Amino acid sequence: MQQVVSVKVMRESDEATIKYKTDSKTLMKRAGEAVYGAHTWQGKTAIVCGTGNNAGDGYVLATLLGDKCHLFLLCDKFSLEGRYYFDECVKMGVTYSFINDDTDFSSFDTIVDCIFGTGFRGEVTGTAKMVIDKINRSGKFVISCDIPSGLNGDTGLGYSVVSDLTVSIGTIKTGLILNSAKDNIKKLINCPIGIDIVGDSYYMLDKSDFIGAIPERKNHSHKGTYGYTALWGGSVEYSGAVKLANLSLSSLKAGCGVNKLIVNESVAPFVAPYLLESTLFKMPSGFHKDKIDEALSGVKCLAIGMGWGKSEDYEHILSYILENYSINLIIDADGLNSLSRMDMSILKRTKCTVCLTPHVKEFSRLAKCDMSEATFEKAKEFAKEYGVIVLLKGTATAVTDGENVYFITNGAPGMATAGSGDVLSGVLCGLGGYLPLDIKTVSLGAFIAARAGELAQSETNAVSMTSSDTVRNIGKAIGEIYGY
Asked: Is residue 202 part of a domain?
């Protein structure tokens, strides 16, 4: 579990450390030393420096590399501490020059990016854009100090350096894992330098955080021990027979004892041939209280809304379930769109344990905000207000219960294909059959689905893989958590 913070919290923590614990010059020295210790330096190194403290870290690095490096300066401007270490470089005889149109990195083996830090906002322009273009076209091994220059430290958006290695200083910032960050950072490591965090923290989870989360199976058990679950999805417009079958199979592979697929009776004939392990429940069109009660009898966890389409009947169905059941309830896809048209206060009254699994556009509808505002911070506020768990899908998936935020950062680009969200809902439903539907279980489900996607891509490729490839690898992903 790695700590993650906003740029504001990192800045305030840095200021508090300087005020009460360690002077800024010492912290800068530690940062430069951290970058030096993060890589095996061979050949000649170009260190490209801007004007702030990020550049100062580069000057410290230059004092350690000596004549094996050359400094490229954006302009003749320095922070106070940066000026001190630049002067140290000059005393040592480290060579430097100012960046211009003729700047050439062809004779260097490594380029270190110290142009902008995590506080950079806006669009990269002028000389900075020109040199970033040159770095990205160089074909050299690129190391970014703290963050690839140009990337927004909070959002992970913006045109930036593409780094082979980014050395985060102090604590990982959210912009290093969100949105475009994965495309601009091939490898990320964090180096603490003695800054104590003051303020809100989030956490990035990995496999080690889930060891023991799935209990060992006993011989003296049966299918009922691991829960009866149901998936309610599909419509005439969105029959997706194979997708629905994959949805059910992913629940079973995640470990529930029995899974029931609930579909409109008009869709059932198309789905039935693809179902091997799951049972099928045919639901008539419209709202039918007795049929809902029959379908959900004995069910511990229900995932609802995948491929539903749009109908006022679905709003009645959701209201009825939320008002009359106390089950684990996962609402996804068209279920979320139905919920967004309802009085959201129903979430405060329900006895269900509710998990919502929106992508950004779906969440903007739920939260009644612009897509640009549909962030994990907004999801945290929403979860707290309505007493639900929100899983906000993205390059990094954010899971929040209103108190904590966990990030799941694994996954693969090949998962950008139809049905991947359905597989995730299936995994969550399967886990919800025998585990409490809390933030840790939901994070576990997101990790399993993402890891299964990584394994699927390794077997095929990012272009050709489908959601069924992910389903086939759920068992392997869970096996890794078990340790075999």
From this structure: no
